[in-house]
Write a structure and sequence with these properties.
This protein is α/β, with parallel strands linked by helices. The chain contains five helices and four strands. It is globular and about 45 Å long.
Length: 169
Amino acid sequence: MSMRSRNVLFLCTGNSARSVMAEALLNVLGAGRFRAYSAGSLPSGKVQPIAAELARAFGYDKPLRSKSWDEFAQADSPAIDMVITVCDNAAGEVCPIWPGQPLTAHWGVPDPASVDGSEDERRRAFQSAWTMLRRRIELLLALPLDKLDRAATQRQLRDIAESASAHEH
């Protein structure tokens, strides 16, 4: 398998925080090895301001937007190689049929948008989710994808959440 750019779709129900942060992180850290996208099953229609602020501060200069996963199930959509759910709701939902049978994984991350509290508490929740996502994306980037077959890649992709969780607690 050659080292071609891989398309990764991060899914979450609202597509307002975790999935858009993951999109920004992988697009910056993946440096052309990956093209990341995000979408939601029930998109909120807006990106959480703290999520957008973290992405901009990290160097992601493209506009982030909340959108439906239906956009990625169209005939003219980019071929998706990996679909990663980042919230527990989206993991249990019936996803559209993705052409090409992409690899799938669930990397559950607590929802920072659901945190009520002071501005500082909310910022800490977003920073915590950002850090968790970054650690998982770094593990993805460390995989020797050009040397792994499909089954091994699938296993490694799913194991990332487990191995990252061990370092998060």
